[in-house]
Design brief:
single chain, cell membrane, protein transport, TatC, two-stranded parallel sheet, translocation
């Protein structure tokens, strides 16, 4: 290979690296700005995240939280700001990733990739909403039911949650549900790549159920309510994935038939 050929291959690589740096800077900048905004209103965001606790307890006056170290609530607000910044900046980060990858894709590949880029945050938000309105209130109601009222020689046992532990619990559940709600996206992409098909998913259904419950046991707190609340929707999403994969297979068969017909003509 001549020196001119080597220089020609270096130029596109340098251009790609420059563009990658530009995309990374924009993504980091979006996250930093979102972090600053979220940190400024971290207290309000935390109060919003307390709504599932209020639903379980019956009212805001019925719940008590505390922090046991001087810096604990400050660190909790930093974690909360990072959590919110991830949500807010995700559309910008995802768009930067798409703009970097899209020029290397064919037109039909870009059209096939775009729906998954849209479906990913939508499904994550559905998972977060499921936690916020159903799973978290159920879990907190279960934890509150373990309290003990004093009387008949028994001491009072009352739940006074730490702010950091409550935030860790709801963040863990939101991420766990958000990730598990990506099941249709992951399985459909694997089907499009030819690694699996609808019949394979049907044949492996019983194993999938076992794996789902195992994952739910790892990702959720050690209570049956949270585990079932995560496992059941994920299994339903698995069933929905089978239907979506069948649609993908049907579309691919139609496209192949059209290509064969055009080739023959």
């Amino acid at each position: 290979m001549s020196q001119s050929d080597i220089d020609a291959t270096k130029a596109p690589l340098i251009e790609h690296l420059i563009e990658l740096r530009s995309r990374l800077i924009k993504s980091i900048l979006a996250f930093v700005i979102a972090f600053g905004l979220c940190f400024a209103v971290a207290g309000h965001i935390f109060n919003i995240l307390l709504v599932p606790y209020e639903l379980a307890a019956g009212s805001a006056a019925a719940i008590r939280l505390q922090y046991t170290a001087p810096q604990e609530y400050f660190i909790t607000q930093i974690k909360l700001a990072m959590f919110g910044a991830g949500f807010i900046s995700f559309p910008i980060v995802a768009s930067q990733i798409y703009k970097f990858v899209a020029p290397g894709l064919y037109k039909n590949e870009r059209a096939a990739f775009l729906p998954y880029l849209i479906a990913t945050p939508v499904l994550f938000l559905l998972g977060a909403a499921f936690v916020y309105f159903l799973a978290m209130p159920l879990a907190m109601r279960f934890f509150l039911s373990m309290q003990q009222v004093s009387g008949d020689g028994r001491p009072s046992i009352e739940l006074i949650a730490r702010t950091s532990e409550y935030l860790s619990l709801i963040m863990t559940l939101i991420f766990a549900f958000g990730i598990c709600f990506q099941t249709p996206v992951v399985l459909t992409l694997l089907a499009r790549a030819g690694f699996i098909d609808s019949q394979w998913l049907i044949d492996k259904r019983r194993y999938a159920i076992v794996v789902v419950f195992a994952i739910a046991a790892v990702l959720t707190p050690p209570d049956v309510i949270s585990q079932i609340a995560l496992a059941v929707p994920t299994i339903l999403l698995y069933e929905a994935s089978i239907f979506v994969v069948k649609m993908v297979e049907k579309k691919q068969a139609e496209e192949k038939a059209e290509e064969d017909a055009s080739a023959e003509s």
